[in-house]
Amino acid sequence: MEATIFPDEKEYLTPYSFYRRMRDENPIAYDPKAKLWAVFRYDDVRTVLSDHDRFSSDFTKFDSSETVGRRKSLISMDPPEHKHSRDLLTKAFTPRAVANMEPRIAQIANDLLDQVIDKGEMDFIRDFASPLPIIVIAEMLGVPTQDRDQFRSWADELLRFTDNPFVDAEANKERRERVQAEMDDYFRGIIAQRKRDPKDDLISSLIQAEIGGEKLTEEQILSFCTLLLLAGHVTTINLLGNSMLCLTDFPDELNKLYAKPDLIPSAIEEVLRYSSPVQLFFRIANRDIDMDGRRIEKGQRIIAWIGSANRDETKFEAPDRFDVTRSPNPHIAFGYGIHFCLGAPLARLEGKAAWETLLSRIGSFTRIPGTLEPSGGFILHGVRSLPIAFEPVKVHQ
């Protein structure tokens, strides 16, 4: 059945009725205008994400224009290239290195709250959710404090090129290449410095990472810096912002966290499911594929709608209910299979540290009325601005 596979622009913040309708009526759909397939059900989404033999992440196999002005990154590789690169990156970007960041993340969260705590209100995105991950990533990479504004500017520019790939792709090409060139020049300078004088930062670890005598090339390091800046910054902004939206929409669930802060990790997982920061991933058919009676031809592109899969009523009881105690919670907000997000432990840690800090210093949150605007298009899911009022916890002298 032919159909549009995208929610209406008015539904970008709440596309869930659209997803349910597609799961019920057209779960494997082709959009002739966009020339794209899409899958909406949990099992199909998971198959498309994990079956790399049939569904490729490397679009350059079928479209040489994909190579123009773009550097291949971890998310656009297939095995065996993907495994080799990921293994090298994992040598530097280790769970221990991430876990060691927790005290610093908590300190950053406290520093950000210090700047607004006496006002009793803030724009949660501008004042907290946006600066926290950019500071974390900048410090991890070894970016000097004085360069942080430039770092944030690059992240914002990259976001504009990413969120709706069907709009003005050619017009954006020159700007995208300019931003990428500026970032490359900057990070080449840091890489050269770290080769001469290694520091305790991620770029130094990436330079030193080695398996069987083989190391990451400069191009691979530059690619990972770009990926970490975009994926680690923007998606975490949305995770933090969406968590505030969910918990102010469902104050009874917020009260559960006040009563039992040990539920914070479970609450983060429920935010990831209920309001997934990334709504979809793209794949391309490696060969002709039959799925549930539908024929997907070799070279055709497929959207795997994560946001729909995480609301699939066949996998989640009462999927439209936000429940910080939900268990089990097999969401696929970080993807599935070999491309499961390498930065997932960092995002989870930032969410946990942020909410532990917020709950320890603020006694109540209230959303300031106003119209919520999506931060971008239909791929990345979040709000541009989120004004809140709050009551600081009273400290007894």
Task: For this entry, give a set of tags.
15 helices, Cytochrome p450, 397 residues, three-stranded antiparallel beta sheet
Tell me what the structure shows.
- This protein has 397 residues and is α+β, with helices and mostly antiparallel strands.
- The protein has a single domain, classed as Cytochrome P450 (Cytochrome p450), CATH 1.10.630.10.
- Helices cover 48% and strands 12% of the residues.
- It has 15 helices and twelve strands.
- A hairpin with a 2-residue loop joins strand 8 and strand 9.
- Helix 5 packs across helix 15 and helix 11 (218-249) runs parallel beside helix 15 (344-361).
- The radius of gyration is 21 Å and the shape is globular.
- The mean pLDDT is 91.
Architecture, CATH level 2? Orthogonal Bundle
Spans where pLDDT lies below 50 across 5 or more residues: none
How many β strands by DSSP?
12
**Total count of helical runs of at least 4 residues:** 15
Shape: globular
Please, how many domains?
1
The biggest beta sheet is recorded as: 5 strands, mixed
* Radius of gyration, taken over Cα atoms and rounded to an integer in Å: 21 Å
According to CATH, the homologous superfamily is Cytochrome P450
- CATH class value: Mainly Alpha
Q: Please tell me the overall pLDDT.
A: 91
Identify the strand order in the major beta sheet: 1-2-10-7-3
Work out the strand percent: 5-15%
Which class best fits the helix and strand makeup? alpha+beta
Tell me the helix content: 40-55%
Give the distance, in angstroms, between the N- and C-terminal Cα atoms: 68 Å
CATH topology label: Cytochrome p450
The sequence of SSEs as H and E is HEEHEHHHEHHHHHEEHHHEEEEHHEE
